[in-house]
Amino acid sequence: MKERLRLTLLAATLACVALPLTSEEIPMQTASTPATATASPSWMNASTSRLQDELVAKYGTQQRERLERGLHQITEFRRADDGDAATFEDFVRTNFAGNQATLDTMFNRFQSLLEQLDGHMHEINRAFNQQSDLDLGPMLPFDETFAGYDPSAHVLDDFFNNKLAFTVLLNFPLTTLDERLKNGPNWTRRQWAETRLAQRFDKRIPADVNLAIAQAAGASGQYISQYNIWMYHLTDPQGQRLFPPKMRLLSHWNLRDEIKANYSDGQGGLPKQRMIQQVMERIVTQTIPQVVINNPAVDWNPFTNEVKAAAAKDSDATTNSPITNAPEPDTRYAVLLRDFNAAKKADPYSPTAPTLIDRRFQEDREIPEARLKAMLEQVLGSPLVAQTAKLIQSRLGRPLEPFDIWYNGFRPGSKYTEAQLDEMVAKKYPTAEAYQKDIPNLLIKLGFSPDRAQYVANNIIVDPARGSGHAMGSQMRSEKAHLRTRVEKTGMNYKGFNIAVHEMGHNVEQTFSLNDNDYTLLQGVPNTAFTEALAFVFQGHDLELLGLPAPDAKSQAEKTLNDFWSTYEIAGVALVDMSVWHWMYDHPQATPKQLNQATVQISKDIWNHYYAPIFHKNDVVLLGIYSHMIDSFLYLPDYPIGHMIAFQIEEQMKKAGAIGPDFERMAKMGRITPDLWMERATGRPVGPEALLEATQQALAANTSH
Ligand SMILES: [Zn+2]
After folding, report:
1. What pLDDT, in 10s, does the model give residues 303-321?
2. What distances in angstroms separate CA 525 from CA 6, 197, 484, 517, 585, one per listed residue?
């Protein structure tokens, strides 16, 4: 479900959980003192005032403001090893574009050459990943090395070293999010493109800092990826095993999904769900015995916390560790603190966004934190929560329990069984080529004109995927977008088709937002939630694309309620993630134990405020369980925003009737700020209103039955 490899877009992938770190957090090692980022040499003041006088005399007073700004910008990023006063002055004299014609030429040439750079780097990446991405037979060990290599990793360093970055910073404006929000609506498209051009060079992070961040990210990813619970070895107070042998669940994703799966197990599911909640709470509070983590050689009663040598075996594993219930020694929080300390090292080198919190909100999301928080609170505090909870309670036939934040009983029904759908799809699409050929028809069914449908279809290449599928756009106009889809030997199945339609939505967006955008510097969408929302619009119409009736009103209402309840759950989780990062910035000397206590308290406070009134239980710590909180550097707020944006776009498509023309209109806007994009797309800024309105209607439909 994910689109891959957007080199310039800082991606945070909604629903398609992979987690590309932003460029600032790619690769670093131990601490370097941020000595030179701001220190300015003794000759600097004299040099800049000399240059100002000289160049204003040469180009006229109308250039004064641009020149002052440019000089200020380059001095902010200068380092001692960039040269002496003479080198500095010579650079400015040579590279300041003193009239509009020179500036236009510079802008156009940077735009087209950066398109070439990004486009070809991306091409290399695609080729190097081909064996691992596509269904082309066995992988050899070196294929993974090719796939892991990023030829563009040093581009930013190179551009500072050869001073092309300084040429941009001398001539084009760096902006803060405040300025983009305040002035952006009145900017021309060219001004937006200039803004994005300068933003490419808004940090100069030393290689050792980047390495430290990459190492912390790698270590936290590693910690999370090994955090398994062997379920057969959990025992209840009566000593019974509730889960089958060999079941090994990764925290938190698999544990949460097991809670969800157990709703279909009626009364038999309930004790299992309660037990998983207990396990999760022990992980958050770090009262989990160290020896039970990823260890099938011990049995554990998570209620009493008693640990014993395994009395039944489901693996050959043995353990050398002493079997005691000594708790995990706050490792979870030590790992998070290491992320924090690494991310913080980049702060001095990022003058327009000097904390990781700033970089996430002001650069990656481009939604101010306060506004985003208000949107989350609007969902959490909505009276629709209690109404939805009441409906869940009546369907469950029991009072809600805390783990019911993961209730998954809202399900769109289908007239057809999965097997029937599989048969239809396999017949229609026996091969990837059959799907490729049908793309123009599919797009016409979605309301694109035959011309536009053919145009887009010509720009998409369908490849057989090794995994479940993904979309890979191109980064230059002479290249095509790739749709990677899974086709079994017996033909495509329904699940594969559903994903292919989603990925096709990404490809269509990628095509319009690159090829039909007036500036390639503006290619893309404001952030990843937008491309996901556009892809979900396609995916939601997959039945019609098979020639079947659209989901009925009842099905749609179930889907809406499911999305609303998920948003309610993840909004609280996002608030915990945000508060924990603020706490770390407020307590930079904290120990892992202190961070543990703080996270537990934050989780309880947010629970007590927004969930306890619904669940009638205080001091629950479940909101702190998300693994992304430990290894993903403040990524969680993307999820609830993604749900809101999806509803806004869907609502607009419904209003517009046909999807095609509106989809094209939206995708062509490119990477402006989220609010501006959304206002131009739907008439309203980003917000939860569309989601809340749809939920209200879905609830009304439910009570009237
Ligand atoms: Zn996707």
Report:
1. 999 999 999 999 888 878 8
2. 11, 15, 21, 11, 30
